[in-house]
Amino acid sequence: MAGAEEYMEKALDVARRAAETQVGAIRVAAGLVVEAMLAGRVFWVFGTGHSHLIAEEVYGRAGGLADVRAVLEPGLMLHEGLQKSSLLERLPGLADVLLEINEIAAGDVVLIASNSGRNAVPVEFALGVRKRGALVIALTSMAHSTSTTSRAPGGQRLFETADVVIDNGGIPGDALIEIPGSPERTGATSTMVGAMLAQALTVEIVTKLTAAGQTPNILRSQNV
Q1: Any idea what the CATH number is for the domain that residue 113 is in?
Q2: What positions does the domain SIS occupy (predicted)?
């Protein structure tokens, strides 16, 4: 087994382990979101670098919740350049600007995705969210995060700032496959598994909302 076949088999193993181990965290996280929504508060999503894709997976998605607000800062995404995004997500103080222009308030819940959980922006964003009285759900790789140091000035990693942690099960460095002749591993899993976990969270939120007698506001595909 090699190449694409090896990657798909090993990536599915990561996904299976995440599915088996993270249901409890997802249910707790969904409970926080539902409680916030029933109280008239807001569910937010945020991520930097490739992790912004997890925020987009929850926001504006067919079959997803319409009542979600996303913090999608162009400089922290990839379409303005990989180097720019990488440098900005390490920049102390930038999270304060994002929090100033996005009105996250007490009682809200914020899902923050960061595979490494070590860069200044997601960590400081989480700390600012907590300071405002909102709750944090972290979607991260615990194996990666616990094997490295923080780049945030306070020394925290994302999982250390969160009310609930959902672990994507990825390995340090994200890429799974070693290929003879290649100096680095290839085949990342954080986006694939992160999207699955984010969708599972959405489904659990909808399940709990309906159980509470609410009619969820679900987006229907415009292509149907």
Answers
A1: 3.40.50.10490
A2: 33-216
CB 73 within 8 A of CB 139: no
Per-residue pLDDT tens digits for 85-120: 999 999 999 999 999 999 999 999 999 999 999 999
Contacts with 103 (C-beta within 8 Å, 6 or more apart), sequence order? none
Q: How far, in Å, are 137, 204, 215 from residue 211 at the CA level?
A: 22, 10, 9
Integer CA distances (angstroms), 219 to 106, 193, 196, in order: 26, 22, 18
Tokens read off for 46? 């945020």
Task: Determine the Cα–Cα distance for residues 120 and 6; give it in Å rounded to an integer.
Answer: 34
Q: Is 169 left (phi over 0), alpha (psi -120 to 50) or beta?
A: left
CA angle 114, 70, 56 (to 5 degrees): 65
Average pLDDT over residues 29-51: 97
Whether residue 221 is contained in a domain is answered as no
Helix, strand, coil tally for the chain in percent (to 5): 45, 15, 40
Q: Which helix (H) or strand (E) holds 15?
A: helix 4-21
Our CA angle for 139, 37, 128, nearest 5°, is 50
The total of structural domains in the chain comes to: 1
Residue-wise pLDDT tens digits, 151-172: 999 999 999 999 999 999 999 9
- For residue 216, being part of any structural domain is answered with no
Average pLDDT, the chain: 96
Using CB atoms within 10 Å of the CB of residue 142, give its burial: 0 to 12 exposed, 13 to 18 middle, 19+ buried: middle
